[in-house]
Amino acid sequence: MRPAAAVDSLQAALAAAEAGERLNQKQALALLEEADLLTLGRLAQASRFRHNPDPLVTYAVDRNINFTNVCTSGCRFCAFFRPPGSKEGYVLDKKELGKKIQETLDLGGSHILIQGGLHPEVGIEAICEMFAFIKENYAIGIHGLSPPEVVHMAALDSISLDQALDRLIAAGLDSIPGGGAEILVDRVREKIAPGKCSAAEWLQVMALAHAKDLMTTATMMFGHIETSAERIEHLARLRDLQDQSLARGKGHFTAFIPWSFQPDNTALPDIEKATANDYLRMLAVSRLFLDNFDHLQASWVTQGAKIAQVSLTFGADDLGSTMIEENVVAAAGVHFKLPAEELVRLAREMGFAARQRNTFYQPVGAMHT
């Protein structure tokens, strides 16, 4: 039998969520660990419609271009990177980069997601040259880099984060993805990603980007060595920064994307994969807690099409990207692929209209009803 105090805590959390009140961390933790799954789904879906009243699911057509796989971070969860000097290491040349971008445009893509690793010889100036090449030759948005990359590259070129972002924006950077967040708790980061920036530095890059009117996304990779309380701490840090950014002006987080760790081919192979139940619980609690985020994205890349559909009843209003190319999760043995037509079908089968969007959540093309 659960202690009366625990029961009372859960009931208070459920009542707060039912009323649409801002949850505190204790309430969010009680919901994550104790609430009935279907009750969480119902509450999260009510929150979803408070944020986005229309029965519409959005999706993007883009490509995840990894301009290099060489990285010094040593992340224990990554099966994609190669250390400096590896015969399997690469850096894309302009010809190959251009080919990938043109293919994306030909498939109706509005932007590219472009990231790499912490390459010991690729700094801000090299990336600015690459971004300028893209903008001079292709009419496409650049959703690029991650906070750990910006921190690393700024250090390589001996410039401040503020200067680094100014140069990247001038070269063509349009928005920043939320990669490299993992869990925004240093106890966890030091064990699974020893070469990456701290949680405070990740948040600093995003705060500076928002102050410069850049839109960004936020992510969480869960289901490895973190505790439930650390997951909620991650959400709290995102919500706090979002409060500050929204109060200041235009730049802010557009969406939150939680996804579960995939252990195959990594240095953490013995960790049991998060179940669909685990994923849906985390998704629902994220929707309830992040009351200042407009959009929540389903992770079909790690969960597959069926759970992506269920996610649309657990608070998600976006199916993410078609991922014309995806390398990092694929390196961990997960190979789900969904073209735009399939994303539209998934939404329709759940009673939603579907519409393509760009990285700013602005509509692209016609509505699919």
Structural features:
globular, four-stranded mixed beta sheet, four-stranded parallel beta sheet, 46% helix, 369 residues, TIM Barrel, alpha/beta
Set out the fold topology:
Blueprint: H1 4-18, H2 25-34, H3 37-51, E1 56-60, E2 62-66, H4 94-106, E3 111-115, H5 124-137, E4 141-144, H6 147-156, H7 161-171, E5 175-176, H8 186-192, H9 199-211, E6 215-222, H10 228-248, E7 253-260, H11 276-289, E8 295-296, H12 300-303, H13 305-311, E9 318-321, H14 328-331, H15 340-349, E10 353-357, E11 363-368
Parallel strand pairs: 1-9, 1-10, 2-3, 3-4, 5-6, 6-7, 7-8
Antiparallel strand pairs: 10-11
Helix pairs in contact: 1-2, 2-10, 2-11, 3-11, 5-7, 6-7, 6-9, 9-10, 13-15
- Helix vs. strand class: alpha/beta
Total domain modules:
1
Order of helices and strands: HHHEEHEHEHHEHHEHEHEHHEHHEE
Rg over CA atoms: 20 Å
- Indicate the CATH architecture: Alpha-Beta Barrel
What is the name of the CATH class? Answer: Alpha Beta
Distance N to C terminus = 49 Å
- Please, how many helices? 15
Net shape? globular
Low-confidence stretches: 326-336
CATH superfamily: Aldolase class I
CATH topology: TIM Barrel
Largest sheet: 4 strands, mixed
Mean pLDDT: 90
Helix share, percent: 40-55%
Task: Describe this structure as you would to a colleague.
With 369 residues, the protein is α/β, with parallel strands linked by helices. It has one domain (25-368): Aldolase class I (TIM Barrel). The protein has 15 helices and 11 strands. The strands form 3 sheets. A 4-stranded mixed beta sheet has the order 9-1-10-11, with helices on one face. It has a 4-stranded parallel beta sheet with strand order 5-6-7-8. Helix 5 runs parallel beside helix 7 (161-171), helix 6 (147-156) packs across helix 9 (199-211) and helix 13 packs across helix 15. The longest helix has 21 residues, at 228-248. The radius of gyration is 20 Å and the shape is globular. The N and C termini lie far apart (49 Å). 50% of the residues are buried. Residues 326-336 have low confidence and may be disordered.
